[in-house]
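Reviewers of the previous submission asked for a worked example of the structure-prediction workflow described in the proposal, so we include one complete record here. The input consisted solely of the amino acid sequence. No template or homolog information was supplied to the procedure at any stage.
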Amino acid sequence: MTKCLQDLQLLIRQQRQWWGDVVARAGLSTERVVLAAADIIDERGFAGLSLTVVAEGLGVRVPSLYKHIAGIDDLRDRLGQLAREQLRSEVQAAAINLFGREALLGLLRGYREYATAHPGRYAAFIGLPSTSPSELLARVIGECAVPAVQVPVVTLAVRSVIRGFVGLSATGAISAGRESDAVFAAILDLLDHGMLPSESRSRLYGRNGAGPAGKLGDRACPRRRFRCP
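From that input alone, the workflow returned the following structure tokens.
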């Protein structure tokens, strides 16, 4: 009698699990799988990503995921693409209706805020072959009176600085909180005062770099509003 009861309970559990899988699979899509994985890597880290963890989070079995993704490499790539689009939207929103210097500083703040809020997604984004909305950054830098021939180099320099800051923050080399805020403020200040080549700075501000505006952007940057492409 006890054996029969145990068998019945096992059968009920199996049926419940089977029915749960059916219900979960019915609402499953590629977008849902990717978004669930994005939440997981933000919480656990990109290195902890696995199909087993994603399947558990969705309440399905791993084979069910293969109807929507090709495998773990495909999922990583999709996460990077998701993060790139989200980051692009974030920095565009941070720079909208701003121009020159203010657009640049807004863009960098938006970049930092996204990387801080979504560390796992940002790690997935870094793994992509081309990992920065460089055309947007170059456009803003071009509005800061940087000579056109030097815009590509300055763009790479600024990109290197902000990615280095985010990378050091992610590893704990820069502590979160006041230290992180202070370092980021110092970076913005250095960029603010050092964006222009020396000859352009002298022409716009005078030889001591302390013209009427006192900062890059007020006089150096044309009064042209930044717009998203």
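Confidence is low (pLDDT under 50) at residues 18-26, 199-229. We consider this example representative of the routine output the project will generate in years two and three.
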